[in-house]
Design goal:
With 241 residues, the chain is mostly helical. The protein has one domain (39-231). Helices cover 70% and strands 3% of the residues. It contains 10 helices and 2 strands; from the N terminus they run ααααααββαααα. Strands 1-2 form a two-stranded antiparallel sheet. A hairpin with a 3-residue loop joins strand 1 and strand 2. Helix 2 (41-69) packs across helix 8 (183-200), helix 3 (72-96) packs antiparallel against helix 4 (100-115) and helix 6 crosses helix 7 (162-173). It is globular, with a radius of gyration of 24 Å. The N and C termini lie far apart (64 Å).
Length: 241
Amino acid sequence: MMKINMHALACCGRRLAASSLFGLVLVSTVQAQGNPQDPYESFNRAMFSANEVIDQYALRPLARVYDVATPLPVKASVGNFFGNAGDLMVGVNNALQGKVSSAGNDFARLLINSTLGIFGLFDVASELGYYRNDEDFGQTLAVWGVDSGAYLYLPIFGPRTLRDTAGLLVDSFSDPVGQIDEVALRNSVRGLRIVDLRAGLLPADKVVEEAALDKYSYIRAAYLQRRTSQIYDGRPPRLDD
């Protein structure tokens, strides 16, 4: 009798294990199909959580101190300087995308702000009607027909796609700041740029916290929508319902 009960118990256990395994596979499949653009969601959420810790205990406090302690004209000059440093590659990417007029505008900005604007500390070009563009190699790859690939979330750098990650590597390699020979100075300039960028995002923190039930999903949707708008210069194609 005991053998029969043990056998029945063993059979029951195997069925429960098989059912549990099937359930785990089913849940995993449903999660993977939840957003086709985010097949690595488990990894991305882990990176997002790590980035939240870095931001909470390092970047955000530094950005708040910088925002409060730095006079507005100085912050404007810092932003102008880094914007001017990026105008060269913005122009190159516009040229690679076939936007000759926009590329000419970018190179004119670089010339004017590097001279009259004292190495880009002052945005004289905008006052003269030369507008600032926002182009990077990820957008150039998109114009060339490269698929966006899967969504990724990288610590410090934040949301990306596989295509934009490849573009980020090219942009980083061509970054003028990276050409500074002295290591301490180069890292200090890079650190200042990160803090300046984070300070510029401080007003958005409250909006995201209040608007998002799931902050990760909210940021993912916002990033993908913004990238589509950038690739099509603010005129993305209408999607079918």
